[in-house]
Amino acid sequence: MAMFRAAALARRAVLALAAAAGGAFPAAATQRSRAARGPVPLVFLDPGHGGKDPGAIGVSGTYEKHVAFAAARELQLQLLATGRYRVALSRGDDVFIPLEQRVAIAQAHGAALFISMHADALLDHAVRGASVYTLAEQASDAQTAALAQRENAADRFAGPEFRGTSPEVADILASLVRQETRAGSARMARQVVAELRPAVRLLQNPARHAAFVVLKSSDIPSVLVEMGFMSNPQDEAALRQADHRAVVASALRRAVDGFFGEPGAARLAG
Ligand code: ZN
């Protein structure tokens, strides 16, 4: 019962956040009337960073925020072309949105799946390849712990109103991540790896986990995809190419098909 009340409180907090976001982000406000989960699932794409937060900056000057947005737009087109999904983006152009607000917007839309898209930087410039991340309090490895720490620091660009309230909401959400949501996130991560493996170079042990704030939705299976690393010259050069981004997007589209049970996509147990 206490758990149920906590869930209701968290939901109210999320809706309040989303309402606060409505003024600044009309797309979220106008689409809220269609938020109920219908027969056509809503896939929520979250291109990382934006506006005053450039994300990682590649060795030849490419901004992660631009690569993430271009890849999300490509994936959006591919998903819509199937006619099997509705698709919403956390940002429609180059604007800054705090991390938990991205989660709140997805909640307000009634999203069935959350995919955050990135191309961050690592200290070791030799490391390259795509990888996928799910939420866990304990990081799978030191490299991922550092990655999550840098990623979560994106909110240093946010105003004080977000810095003041967000951690509390994040804690409530984290405590409510349900078993089925975790299982769904893990299943999606396996689909992403299975579809990316034959298509692009992967990081060693490509399925990893850490406490990424943007993955802390209590009821939406969520993954964060690093399409490659801006700190690696080959990855940066590849991600600048629309053709390469289309290959990544097709693999992710097949992973979404697999997640929702499309025959023909790779079917994975569990
Ligand atoms: Zn990033």
Describe the overall structure.
The structure is a single chain. This protein has one domain (2-205, 214-259): Aminopeptidase, CATH 3.40.630. Helix content is 48%, strand content 13%. The protein has nine helices and six strands. The protein has helices at residues 2-24, 26-30, 64-82, 99-109, 142-152, 160-176, 179-196, 233-239, 242-259, and strands spanning 42-47, 86-89, 113-118, 130-135, 202-210, 222-226. A six-stranded mixed β-sheet has the order 2-1-3-6-4-5, with helices on both faces. It starts with a helix and ends in an 11-residue tail after the last helix. The structure holds zinc ion (ZN). Residues 48-49, 55, 64, 118, 120, 151 line the site of zinc ion.
Feature tags:
Aminopeptidase, binds zinc ion, 270 residues, six-stranded mixed sheet
Give a quick rundown of the structure:
The protein is an alpha/beta fold and 270 residues long. The protein is 48% helix and 13% strand.
